[in-house]
Design goal:
This protein is of the alpha+beta class and about 55 residues long. The chain is built from 2 helices and 2 strands. It has a two-stranded parallel ribbon with strand order 1-2. The protein starts with a strand and ends with a helix.
């Protein structure tokens, strides 16, 4: 990928799968930004991103 890549990570399976593939597929991750947003709808899922850090 060229330029800045932004991945929205919710802590769920789908976003974790996407983030993993972005990390594996790219050697140069200097311009990678990972965001985490808690909407309040999936409160238990917010624990998962903390475990991934």
């Amino acid at each position: 990928m060229s330029g800045t890549t932004v991945v929205s990570f919710s802590g769920g399976r789908t976003s974790a799968y996407m983030l993993r593939h972005v990390l594996v597929a790219n050697d140069d991750l200097d311009d990678l930004i990972v965001t985490i947003a808690n909407t309040g709808e999936a409160h238990p899922a917010i624990r998962q991103p903390r475990l991934c850090v």
